[in-house]
């Protein structure tokens, strides 16, 4: 009897660490802004920004923890917590579009507490179901990814030129927009991205039905993050900027000019949003390539070495892009 009660208690507590990480995330950003506003960009401010990054990333560790391995619902909630940065940006943009008098942190808190209660009070699901392979969906997901990769590679390189200054970024973006903003290409890109979101979430839901190793957890978690990032970015660019406010989605828009990303209380949420977005888009591709190489019989030690190097490269690229967005110039 006591063993059953103890097990039920652990199940009831399991969802709350990722919920706590999501709830604390806005307050870590607020603490960074408070420290930066009063003392400048000191070590204290940097520590708070590090905490803001660590909170969603801790959810990936929670998905791999014993509690995450035991419970499908907890594991899925942890992957949702990993996507807190784009989801919090989406919450803020929607609040602005709706002219909500309530600060966005309060509906954010209600949402996550509700998710925690639903997970804690819901029925326990098994963890050992083999995910359906859905070969056609996986092939379609991969083919669409190859097509999208051309745009993503250009987009990341375009942002990387921000290290040379806004003018260099604008010149390259002007050339790229001749293609990706054309009346034919832009709708195709939108359809491809939305199909990736829908197909990717379906596969992530299936794969998260069983315990995952580190590589697969990063693949599923990065997919969840990118789904939230794509929907958030489309809402910000197409709906908020272009349809409602009629402003250009240029370097000034991306960097929150004139205040910038680091000095503004709202804009600071864009730093983890952008940085983890750049990292996870490369990490997701690297994880997918790892699965392809293993399926074709490439030696596991070599594949894992390439995978680790790819993740390190993703981190370096993300750091460089983020530094440019925050004002560093070469």
From TrEMBL:
Signal peptide: none annotated. The chain crosses the membrane at residues 12-29, 41-65, 77-99, 143-164, 184-205, 217-234, 271-293, 305-325. SUPFAM superfamilies: Fumarate reductase respiratory complex transmembrane subunits. Keywords: Membrane, Transmembrane, Transmembrane helix. It comes from the Bacteria. The keyword Transmembrane applies. Coiled coil: none annotated. This is Uncharacterized protein. It comes from Caulobacter rhizosphaerae. The lineage of its organism: Bacteria, Pseudomonadati, Pseudomonadota, Alphaproteobacteria, Caulobacterales.
């Amino acid at each position: 009897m006591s063993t059953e009660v103890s097990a039920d208690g652990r199940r009831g507590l399991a969802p709350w660490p990722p919920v706590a990480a999501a709830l604390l995330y806005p307050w870590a950003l607020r603490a960074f802004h408070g420290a930066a506003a009063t003392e400048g960009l000191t070590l204290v401010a940097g520590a708070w920004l590090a905490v803001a990054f660590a909170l969603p990333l801790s959810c990936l560790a929670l998905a791999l923890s014993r509690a995450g391995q035991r419970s499908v619902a907890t594991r899925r909630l942890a992957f949702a917590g990993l996507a807190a940065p784009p989801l919090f940006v989406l919450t803020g943009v929607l609040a602005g579009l709706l002219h909500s008098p309530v600060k966005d942190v309060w509906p954010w808190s209600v949402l996550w507490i509700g998710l925690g209660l639903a997970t804690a009070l819901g029925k326990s699901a098994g963890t050992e179901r083999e995910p359906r392979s859905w070969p056609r969906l996986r092939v379609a997901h991969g083919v669409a990814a190859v097509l999208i990769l051309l745009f993503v590679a250009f987009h990341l390189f375009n942002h990387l030129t921000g290290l040379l200054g806004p003018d260099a970024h604008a010149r390259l973006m002007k050339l790229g927009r001749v293609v990706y903003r054309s009346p034919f290409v832009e709708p195709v890109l939108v359809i491809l991205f939305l199909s990736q979101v829908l197909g990717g979430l379906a596969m992530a839901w299936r794969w998260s039905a069983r315990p995952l190793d580190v590589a697969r957890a990063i693949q599923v978690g990065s997919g969840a993050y990118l789904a939230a990032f794509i929907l958030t970015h489309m809402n910000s660019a197409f709906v908020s900027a272009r349809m409602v406010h009629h402003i250009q989605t240029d370097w000034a828009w991306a960097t929150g000019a004139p205040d910038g990303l680091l000095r503004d209380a709202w804009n600071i949420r864009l730093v983890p949003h952008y940085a983890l977005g750049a990292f996870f888009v490369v990490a997701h591709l690297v994880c997918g390539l790892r699965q392809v190489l293993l399926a074709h019989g490439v030696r596991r030690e070599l594949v894992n070495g390439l995978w680790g190097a790819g993740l390190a490269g993703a981190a370096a690229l993300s750091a460089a892009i983020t530094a440019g967005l925050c004002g560093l110039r070469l």
